[in-house]
Design the sequence.
């Protein structure tokens, strides 16, 4: 069941509030859906074979573009064999599709016909595609600095793009004003319905490796992928499939690293964090909504957060491109993170490449 994480109010049976109407808190799963190997539907492709873990209504329509089943490719770097999970090969070019497919399926189950979203690019493009697929009219608020290819992608899928001047947080404030006027805010950050979609990365990695990874490294902005994967590995552990969680490593850009600051210094650390400009635009999030839950899952895995200096982002992108991985700068921060921890964290090591280079500014 989904409840407010502050006051415990159950998510309503009607309407689509993006936050608790009583206290303004964040909705989350009180109990994350369980994993059961016997209930995997091998007749379904991609993430939908794991539908029993989604928590969707039984009769919820499936809004599907073939998300999931992304390749796992091994490469030797820094003297170690590292596996790269190619999430940029999802239908709209990013990992966001796993969560969006569930979120839009949920919206369809509630009869939603129009909805708004905010994004620095990838989530907006994903929402626009799946909303169109599900027959929902979409409007996406994006910061003006969002890369042109992402904005073009959103428009091509049929959603209206609303450009918002200033930092990423301004787009969030603008979409919340639209929600206050009655729009359905299909927030990938506020709403928890997409988290079980990100958990499918954990299930796929177990199947691809034949074991749990030793370490998983991923970029983290809102941290939804990190949280969803962590809960997926926890579900595997609770089901007796794996013995312990892999070490989870979240990576942020130094220019905007609130999760790293919270990990390093506790609540006082956030006071010195700014929403600085960075080429890793997908992780430029100054106030992650689920920071407490994310820190808890990372710490329970004996994991950590790392930060990457701005001057190391594009060289990392170029090094990955030389190995055949054409990814956007946000994904590229895993390269320097690997340089920081290879040889010190358990193997096998998996790095998540979250977004396509075809979507990024050059």
Sequence:
């Amino acid at each position: 069941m989904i409840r407010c994480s502050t006051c415990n109010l159950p998510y309503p049976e009607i309407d689509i509030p993006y936050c608790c109407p009583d206290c303004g808190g964040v909705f989350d799963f009180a109990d994350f859906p369980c994993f059961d190997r016997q209930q995997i539907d091998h007749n379904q492709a991609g993430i939908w074979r794991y539908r029993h873990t989604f928590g969707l209504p039984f009769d919820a329509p499936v809004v599907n573009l073939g998300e999931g089943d992304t390749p796992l490719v091994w490469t030797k770097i820094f003297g170690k064999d590292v596996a790269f999970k190619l999430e940029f090969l999802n239908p709209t070019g990013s990992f966001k599709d796993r969560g969006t497919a569930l979120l839009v399926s949920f919206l369809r189950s509630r009869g939603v016909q129009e909805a708004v979203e905010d994004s620095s690019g990838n989530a907006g493009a994903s929402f626009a595609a799946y909303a169109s697929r599900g027959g929902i009219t979409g409007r996406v608020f994006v910061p003006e600095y969002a890369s042109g290819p992402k904005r073009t992608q959103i428009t091509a899928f049929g959603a209206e793009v609303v450009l918002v001047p200033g930092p990423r947080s301004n787009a969030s404030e603008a979409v919340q004003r639209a929600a206050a006027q009655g729009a359905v805010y299909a927030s990938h950050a506020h709403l928890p319905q997409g988290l079980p979609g990100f958990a499918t990365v954990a299930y796929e990695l177990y199947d691809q490796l034949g074991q749990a990874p030793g370490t998983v490294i991923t970029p983290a902005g809102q941290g939804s992928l990190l949280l969803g994967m962590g809960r997926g590995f926890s579900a595997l552990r609770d089901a007796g499939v794996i013995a312990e969680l892999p070490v989870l490593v979240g990576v942020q850009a130094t220019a905007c690293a609130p999760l790293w600051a919270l990990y390093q210094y506790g609540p006082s650390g956030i006071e010195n964090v700014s929403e600085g400009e960075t080429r890793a635009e997908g992780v430029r999030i100054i106030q992650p909504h689920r920071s407490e839950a994310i820190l808890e899952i990372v710490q329970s895995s004996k994991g950590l957060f790392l930060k990457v200096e701005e001057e190391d982002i594009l060289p990392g992108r170029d090094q990955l491109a030389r190995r055949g991985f054409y990814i956007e700068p946000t994904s590229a921060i895993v390269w320097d993170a690997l340089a920081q921890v290879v040889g010190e964290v358990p193997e096998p090591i998996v790095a998540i490449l979250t977004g396509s280079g075809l979507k990024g500014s050059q």
Q: What stands out?
A: The mean pLDDT is 95. The radius of gyration is 19 Å. The domain at 72-95+192-359 is CATH 3.40.50.1100 (Rossmann fold).
